[in-house]
Amino acid sequence: MIPRPTKIVCVGRNYAKHAQELGNKVPEQPLLFFKPPSSLISNGDPILLPRASQQVEHEAEIGVVIGKSLRRADRAAARDAIAGITCVNDVTARDLQRSDGQWTRAKGFDTFCPAGPGVVPLAELPPLEELEVIGRVNGNERQHGYARDMAFDIVTILVYISGIMTLEPGDLVATGTPAGVGPLEPGDTVEVEVPGVGLLSNPVIAEN
Ligand code: ZN
């Protein structure tokens, strides 16, 4: 289980190849959006495909859990405020993301933020830029990315966010997804693995 955050802050288009695959450019500054804390589920909990969408997709991401209140931080303070790293699946209703413009609905359905299985402190991990993230559907690898390929690295993201809003202990930052996003169907099992951190696995079912 990861702690209940006051907010989940996400970064869009943070890997060049993923931005390209959806026809977008990497932004000049980090592109931020929220997922509501009510979208959080744990390892093993089902992702519910809402009837409102015909195209729900997985996004495997490296998650950062905040351990200290962080406001207008410099790089050293930002790094020091990281409680640890977790796995995040930024589940997205791609059709609604396109049609709505604003991403609140596309990113915000209940069960659209699997995270976990735990939070691993930096002291137990390789340097941040060596982290990698893998996404699989039914055991088949669909995504494989490296933190060093992020347009904006993890500490830069935290500095940027903390210049806008105070990050509180327990807050979760999803740092963007590498290329290879794709659809989820009822009966699928989707995994996000951050080697050294853990494996997050969730079944996919249709909403009743
Ligand atoms: Zn994402």
Summary tags:
208 residues; alpha+beta; Fumarylacetoacetate hydrolase, domain 2; seven-stranded mixed β-sheet; five-stranded mixed β-sheet; 5 helices; 15 strands; 37% strand; globular; binds zinc ion
Main sheet makeup = 7 strands, mixed
Mean pLDDT: 96
Helices and strands, in order, run as EHEEEEEHEEHHEEEHEEEE
Supply the helix-strand structural class.
Answer: alpha+beta
Number of DSSP strands? 15
Quick one: overall form?
globular
CATH class: Alpha Beta
> CATH superfamily name?
Fumarylacetoacetase-like, C-terminal domain
Rg, Cα atoms, Å: 15 Å
Q: Which spans of ≥5 residues are poorly predicted at pLDDT below 50?
A: none
Named CATH topology: Fumarylacetoacetate hydrolase, domain 2
Sequence of strands across the biggest β-sheet: 2-1-12-6-7-9-3
Task: Summarize the model shown.
With 208 residues, the protein is an alpha+beta fold.
Description:
The structure is a single chain. The protein is of the alpha+beta class and 208 residues long. It has one domain (8-206): Fumarylacetoacetate hydrolase, domain 2. 16% of the residues lie in helices and 37% in strands. The chain contains five helices and 15 strands. It has helices at residues 16-21, 75-80, 94-100, 104-108, 154-162; strands spanning 8-12, 31-35, 40-41, 47-49, 56-58, 60-66, 82-89, 92-93, 113-120, 132-137, 140-146, 172-174, 182-183, 189-194, 198-206. It has a seven-stranded mixed beta sheet with strand order 2-1-12-6-7-9-3. A hairpin with a 2-residue loop joins strand 10 and strand 11 (140-146). The longest helix is centred in the C-terminal third of the chain and has 9 residues, at 154-162. The radius of gyration is 15 Å and the shape is globular. The mean pLDDT is 96. Bound molecules: zinc ion. Residues 10, 59, 61, 90, 174, 176-177 line the site of zinc ion.
